[in-house]
């Protein structure tokens, strides 16, 4: 067993012990935590029978159904549901999509991850049946265009990977030699002047929150900085928003 695992075992696998272990071996706390997560997800995934686990999930769902109508509907989709649950459980047991296995430097990886969110959305939009493409001009306030029967929608895309908060405000520019308090470096609020639709992409599993920009426009300057995902649950995987927005722009 790896020495890092041996050390964690001494502390009964307590997460608050990671900082001390990392210091002992000259590692960063985040680096060691990532190692533990990857190792433990792999260990559990190798032991779990996904087909059996999928069946258990399907059986539990069936038990929750009371009406005969729902039971009949469930019987109709049961085989398909089991298949998709098995696929979804695989992603869950591998801690989501694979990230940075080549150990790219963090700054570069952050930029690349932002691009990945854009590509995930564009691919999802195309799969959903829309004519969608990325915008290559970096200075543009929107990242993609969707053509809905001749109506062009501007889409701004942001990636989320952890936490449960999104922001309708750009990040302040920072770094060495940059005055983050200067007006030109302060993040701007995202409004209807910038895009028609704002999309938050969960880079871990590919879920898209497709939010009409009017939602953000109705928030105060303070409210727009931190919006909980539970407050935009109605827009989670709601691809009808694209068609509805196109119709509203035509009317």
Brief summary of the model shown:
The protein is of the alpha+beta class.
Give a written overview of the molecule.
- The protein is α+β, with helices and mostly antiparallel strands and 251 residues long.
- It folds into 3 domains: 45 residues; 44 residues, no CATH class; 145 residues, Trna Endonuclease, Chain: A, domain 1 (3-Layer(aba) Sandwich).
- 45% of the residues lie in helices and 14% in strands.
- The strands form 2 sheets. A 5-stranded mixed beta sheet has the order 1-2-3-5-6.
- Helix 2 packs across helix 3 and helix 4 runs antiparallel to helix 5.
- The radius of gyration is 22 Å and the shape is globular.
- The model has no long low-confidence stretch (mean pLDDT 91).
Poorly predicted runs of 5 or more residues: none
CATH architecture of the largest domain: 3-Layer(aba) Sandwich
Biggest β-sheet, characterized?
5 strands, mixed
- As for the CATH topology of the largest domain, it is Trna Endonuclease, Chain: A, domain 1
H-E order: HHHHHHEEEEEEHEH
Distance between the termini: 66 Å
Strand order of the largest sheet: 1-2-3-5-6
Rg result: 22 Å
Helical content band: 40-55%
Features:
five-stranded mixed β-sheet, 3 domains, 8 helices, Trna Endonuclease, Chain: A, domain 1, alpha+beta, single chain, 251 residues
């Amino acid at each position: 067993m790896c020495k890092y695992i041996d050390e964690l075992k001494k502390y009964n696998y307590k997460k608050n012990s990671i900082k001390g272990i990392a210091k002992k071996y000259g590692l960063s706390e985040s680096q060691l935590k990532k190692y533990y997560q990857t190792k433990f997800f792999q260990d559990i995934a190798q032991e779990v029978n996904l087909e059996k686990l999928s069946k258990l999930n399907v059986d539990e769902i069936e038990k929750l159904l009371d009406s005969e109508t729902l039971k009949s509907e469930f019987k109709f989709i049961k085989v398909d549901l089991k298949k998709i649950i098995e696929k979804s459980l695989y992603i869950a047991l591998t801690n989501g999509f694979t990230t940075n296995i080549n150990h790219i430097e963090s700054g570069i990886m952050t930029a690349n991850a932002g691009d990945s969110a854009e590509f995930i959305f564009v691919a999802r939009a195309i799969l959903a049946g829309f004519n969608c493409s990325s915008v290559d001009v970096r200075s543009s306030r929107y990242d993609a265009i969707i053509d809905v029967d001749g109506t062009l929608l501007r889409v701004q895309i942001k990636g989320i990977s952890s936490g449960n908060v999104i922001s309708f405000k750009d990040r302040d520019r920072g770094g060495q030699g940059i005055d983050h308090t200067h007006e030109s470096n302060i993040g701007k609020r995202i409004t209807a002047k910038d895009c028609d639709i704002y999309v938050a992409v969960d880079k871990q599993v590919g879920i898209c929150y497709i939010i009409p920009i009017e939602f953000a426009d109705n928030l105060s300057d303070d409210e727009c900085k931190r919006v909980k995902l539970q407050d935009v649950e109605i827009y989670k995987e709601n691809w009808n928003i694209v068609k509805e927005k196109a119709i509203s722009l035509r009317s």
